[in-house]
Amino acid sequence: MPTLRKARAVFVVLALSEGQAVTRRWLASLLWSRNEPAQGLARLRDTLSTLRHALKVSVGDTDLVRVTADRVMLRPGAVLVDLDTAASGGSVSSLLPAEIGADLDGIDPALDAWLLALRGRYRAKFDGASSPAALAAAPGGMKRGVVIAVAAPHVIGAGAETGLAFALAEEIGTSLSRIRGVSVVSHARVCGAPVQTGLDFVLEGSLQRLGGRLRVSAKLVEVPSGVVCWSACFDYDHDDLFHIQQDVAALVAAGLEPELPTIAAERMRRLGSFGEGAYVLMLRAISLIHLLDRRSFNEAGGLLSRVIEIEPEFSSAYSWLALWHIFLVGQGWARDPRASITRAGEVAEHAVMLDPNDARGLTIAGHVRAFLHRRLDEALPLHERALAVNPSLPLAWHLSGVAQAYKGNLDEARRRIEHCRRLAPRDPHSFFADGAAIIVELLSRQHDVAADIGRKVTQLHPRFSAAYKPYLSALGHLGEEREAHVVHRRLLQLEPDFSIRSFRMTAPFARRDHLDHYVGGLTLAGVL
After folding, report:
1. Beta bridge partners of 66
2. Quick check: helix, strand or coil at residue 328?
């Protein structure tokens, strides 16, 4: 083993990644979280070179660490991790969970958090709590998420590759495991085995080749009812199998992530298992937030406050509460906007402190910095860290795109928002990203496009006041007085105090000409 601590840390992380390839971006974010992403990747490249050289000298193996353009892994079967054997009932290891990677503590806060979570999982296994139900439980035993078993897609016909099916299962499992609140059981534990107590869903599907085309289907099936809760289908006309498995995994994880709270809540209703636990209360709050009905919205804020009282270390509850405050201010509903902005910052920072590898928490904290605090230079690294942790998170692509728009980088903002839409075309909360797209097109002087998106968003989600503002500005620039009058009246029904002065005071745009263009359209539309 190499003596350099970060090289040792890379080896330990790879050995404990259960035979999975990990992305370079994630590995760099784990060991160089204080650095810019490009710097972290450069240092990782040097560290990998050091590690491979040390292994060549010490054990004579030049192929133990396998490195591709964007991934790193250990050669399958080359390293035996006795923790898994001991935890699953085999020979007892002399290493206690608290001692796993003890010599690596203090290298980086992100690595410390990862090791802490890892030790907690192995502690649960050593204590006999290795069932799927235990995987989704909080330290106190209360449920905090769902358990999904990922099975290899069923191969249809002789032309499709069995190896690809198993590779897809592994890749999808890796992508799903990056979502907080999701615990993944690999296909090896469920194929041909009876349904396990505590398992909530099985993700299954099929793989079929038709001539030169490959079709991959996926569906989320509830256990034990067999109800299909979600499904998707992906077609490819090329044979780049590595790209296919990466793309399918990203689209499945991104498609499921925004819908899982609703799916989990529906499952609980069917089973009659709704109660007053923290996780259940949070699901109820999430379902109420996006209704943007003021009464339901206020109830959601109360529920999230109760969640934090019940489980003060439930990081996801803090990030959802931060998002609640963002909407509270953005909708013009805050009685004391300054207090709400301060509180949003507090709970967002606390969420990141509790779980520095929760991509959703990181990107929400970034949006608080950008939208509420107008500190764009602090927001951008948080968004990049979120994407390094989970590159399949639609919300991170959306909110990082918004930050780029505020910064004035409109082409990059458009690229990110469009990628968000591609990842999750059926996102039930897509109005949030579509509202950001109106801003990008308005500032790009594409007023017809901005107005067209504004019409669609406000028709589908008429309570989302943030969409009316850039839509109204676009109408002002287009000279559409009659339509602008109607839109202005609707906006004032949602935000009676909206004015040019209030907008100028809170707008987070870094470029003065962008702010002036936005305000100019509002003025032409009749806003005072």
Report:
1. 73
2. helix
For residue 250, give every residue at least 6 positions away whose Cβ sits within 8 Å of its Cβ, in sequence order, or none. Answer: 175, 391, 392, 423
Torsion angles phi and psi, residue 204, rounded to 5: -130, 180
DSSP character at residue 143: B
CATH, domain range 290-524 = 1.25.40.10
Fold of 146-266: Rossmann fold (3.40.50)
3-state secondary structure of 37: helix
| Average confidence (pLDDT) over 93-100 | 51
Domain locations in the chain? 5-129, 146-266, 290-524
The dihedral sign for the CA sequence 458, 366, 282, 254: positive
Q: First CA to last CA across the chain, in angstroms?
A: 69
**CA 249 to CA 244: how far, in whole Å?**
8
Task: Give the whole-angstrom CA distance, residue 410 versus residue 29.
Answer: 26
The residue type found at 485 is H
3-class SS of residue 149: strand
Q: How would you class 197 by CB atoms within 10 Å of its CB: exposed for 0-12, middle for 13-18, buried for 19 or more?
A: exposed
Q: Read off the pLDDT band of 305 (50, 70, 90).
A: very high
pLDDT at 86: 45
- Select from 177, 19, 1 the least CA-distant residue to 84: 19
Note whether 134 and 54 are within 8 A (CB).
Answer: no
Q: 39-48, 49-58, 427-436: which range is least confident on average?
A: 49-58
Instruction: Using pLDDT thresholds of 50, 70 and 90, give the confidence band for residue 372.
Output: very high
| Averaged pLDDT, 398-422 | 97
Instruction: Tell me the sheet residues that pair with 491.
Output: none
Selected residue with higher pLDDT from 153 and 37:
153
Residue pointed to by tokens 């890796």: 174
